[in-house]
Amino acid sequence: MPFLKKKPKLSQTQNQYQILAKAREAKRPLFLNMIRAFIVGGSICTLGQAIQWFFITYFKFTENAAGNPTVAILIMLSVLFTGLGIYDRLAQWGGAGTAVPVTGFANSIASAAIEHRSEGFVLGVAGKMFELAGAVIVYGVFTAFVIALIKIGIKVLIGI
Fold first, then answer.
1. Does residue 8 sit within a domain?
2. Deepest in the core among 9, 24, 40, 105, taking most CB within 10 A?
């Protein structure tokens, strides 16, 4: 078992370096980082809720029908802010709060596309963009397929 392997003995110089490195390591403000992540993540979710409320109130959508355009707008805003460099600055300040699933995923795909645009549209933008998104899409489709099979199986067993 690889996790039971003993750590190699360090020399005196290596031990001294470990002690020096630990003493000089910057202390992370954990509580402040959690507050910032909460503020940023909560703000993104609040924006999404406001957009959904807008569609329900002014376009008379149902709550379910308002979900799709809300997600589309959040994705467009995330990609736009990524292209303008705003999302990166927000991520530097808010940390994990920007990892809200829809906007975080859109940001990661747009970042990959922007980073590799010099390699061309097919091999650079599309290739690198879907290199990241491909795994998420494949597992998402596969999971949806398995859940659909389970749902159908339950309906057949119950006789609905």
1. no
2. 40
Q: For residues 66-92, b (16+ Cβ closer than 10 Å) or e, as one string?
A: beeebbebbbebbbebbeeeebeebbe
Q: How many domains does the chain have?
A: 1
Compute the distance between CA of residue 86 and CA of residue 99 in angstroms, rounded to an integer.
15
> Widest CA span of the chain, in angstroms?
72
> Would 50 be classed as within a structural domain?
yes
Contact at 8 Å (CB) between 51 and 73?
A: yes
Query: Would you say residue 23 lies in a domain?
Result: no
DSSP-assigned letter for residue 62: -
Q: What is the DSSP string of 103-159?
A: HHHHHHHHHHHHHTGGG-IIIIIIHHHHHHHHHHHHHHHHHHHHHHHHHHHHHHHHT
pLDDT in tens, 8-51: 787 888 888 988 888 899 888 999 999 999 999 999 999 999 99
The boundaries of the domain holding residue 94 are 30-158
Interatomic CA distance for residues 75 and 67, integer angstroms: 12
Task: Provide the whole-model pTM.
Answer: 0.71
